[in-house]
Amino acid sequence: MDTKTNSAIRLNSIILQAYQNENKLIKDVWKDVFQIDLKYGYLLEKSIISCLDSLNDEFEFFKKDMEETNFSKELYINEISNLQKSLIVPTGINGDWEQRKKQITNVHFKIFDFCSEILPTNEEQIDSNDIKELKKLISELEDFIEKNSLPKDLKRILEQHISKIKVALYTYNINGINVFDEVLQSAYGEVIKNKNIFSDDSNNKVKEKIAKVWSHTQKIYNIGKGTEQLYIDFNNITNSLQDLLS
Question: I need a labelling partner for 5 at 20 to 30 A (CA). Which of 15, 30, 60, 116 fits?
Answer without folding.
Answer: 30
